[in-house]
Amino acid sequence: MIRVEKLTKEFVRKGGDGRIVRKLAVDDLSLEIKKGEIFGLLGPNGAGKTTTIRMLTMQTEKTDGKIWYDGMALEENAREIKALIGVVPQHINFDNDLTVGCNMELHGRLHHLAGAERQKRIAELLRYIELEDTVNMSPRQLSGGMKRRLLIARALIHRPKILFMDEPTVALDPQVRRRIWDLIQEMADRGVTVLLTTHYIEEAENLCHRVAIINKGRLVDIDTPESFCRRMGKIAVEWHENGVRQYRFFDTRAQGAEFAATLEAAHIRRSNLEDVFIELTGRREGL
Amino acid sequence: MLLRDIWTVFWRDWVVLRRRLKKFIFSRMVAPMLYMIAFGWGLGRSIQVTDGSYLDFLVPGILALNSMNISFNSVTPVHSERIYHKSLEEYIIAPVVPEAFVIGKVLAAVLRGMISSAIILLLAAGFGAQLHLTPLFLLVVAVNCIIFSEIGFFAAMTISTYEEMGQVNTYVLLPMSFLCGTFFSVHALPELLRYFIQLLPLTHTSYLLRGLAMSQPVALESFGVLLLYAAVFFIMARWAYLRLTK
């Protein structure tokens, strides 16, 4: 569905002292996303997740590399590809001069939906996200969770085949987050390919069929969450040494228990994607 | 497809304007009314002009400067759509060509400029001004709106802060408002300054509007200059929009 080859983005800016500053935000990234898959881009802050999405959605020009959608090269087929994709941005970017209904209508018009179909689709989607009563309200009057749901609905108006979601649940409470996970899962069940970025590990673990871990703009590894844990060791033994949390991973609980017995106090549990993430991106990353 | 996309971009601004139309109309009456009272009735009584009253001389100038200000400031909210609300991203990710976005925004600003100009013409008639209106007169007002909405668009796409946007008003629009033949003839200016002022688009607009309103012969080269400015600023506006994805 999406093929990315050696994707690179270098930002060139003038620094405070007038000198040219170069920052490599995405470095030689190659990956493939299959049709109907929920694919996660996982990485610490500043890893290059948002820049990658912005290049894939033509909001930022790439410095180098190639992108194909269904075999179509991005540069030569920009308009066709834009009709295929939907984008849920990280920030709330509604037009606050328009009502909720007009925001939806603007998106429908921009994607060339005919009048009757557009109205039907808006009503259908607002019902789907349980916001049908807000059609004449300003987006400013909505809660954070309502705005997030509305962003998803807006991105779906033109029935995109691929949905890009940049941190779709950032700063939301657990109930709303789970409601949005349900929405994402439902969309995938309907055949929409989803690429989401997140730094919530449990989000990737719960939703994604496959996850790419990126760090400092580079791809570290790609696999399914289960396979990542299996490769590292299904059982984690966790203990404290000189005030620092330590981990070791084992294939079986018996091996883990045998090792834990040598320690004063230890906690044995199943390993998870967070362990994988920390192992692959470095324990001190983000400090 | 291009026309449909232009209509979509224009539609957004029309929805916003329609909701605030009364407020827009009333707020646009204040400045021209004050100009006409202060310069037309007040100062104007003691000013002699060759043909007609000073009010007849003044109104084309007010039209020129007002259409400049309104069309420029109508398009500048795109700046906050770009920097603060980021709602411009909706257009970037949509299958809409850049020209459609620029033209749609410019046309919406032209509409505001033309409504505002119509208000001035009605007020001027109420104050007793005698103006000869022709299709070319209205076309000159529209082209003036196009030029300054394109300049506003370019500024909104390239400038990073609100403060700097305000500086465009202070350093570009305000001096032009007073010096480009709006309140007095540019022939009253020192020679060196006059040559520079005569290069500016608002000078050509003032000259054309005044000549046409007073049924005097006008040099159509000035209209050509305005069209050239419109074409150049369109290219710059389009470039500035495309630059957003760099």
Explain the overall architecture.
- The complex is a heterodimer of chains A (287) and B (246).
- Chain A has 10 helices and 13 strands.
- Chain A is α/β, with parallel strands linked by helices.
- Chain A folds into 2 domains: 2-224, Rossmann fold; 228-281, no CATH class.
- In chain A, a hairpin with a 5-residue loop joins strand 1 and strand 2.
- The longest helix of chain A is centred in the middle third of the chain and has 16 residues, at 174-189.
- Chain A is globular and about 70 Å long.
- The model of chain A has no long low-confidence stretch (mean pLDDT 91).
- Chain B has one domain (2-245).
- Chain B has helices spanning 2-19, 21-42, 54-75, 78-83, 89-92, 98-126, 135-158, 162-179, 191-197, 201-213, 221-242.
- The longest helix of chain B is centred in the middle third of the chain and has 29 residues, at 98-126.
- Chain B is globular and about 60 Å long.
- In chain B, 43% of the residues are buried.
- The model of chain B has no long low-confidence stretch (mean pLDDT 92).
- The interface between A and B is medium-sized, with 27 and 23 residues.
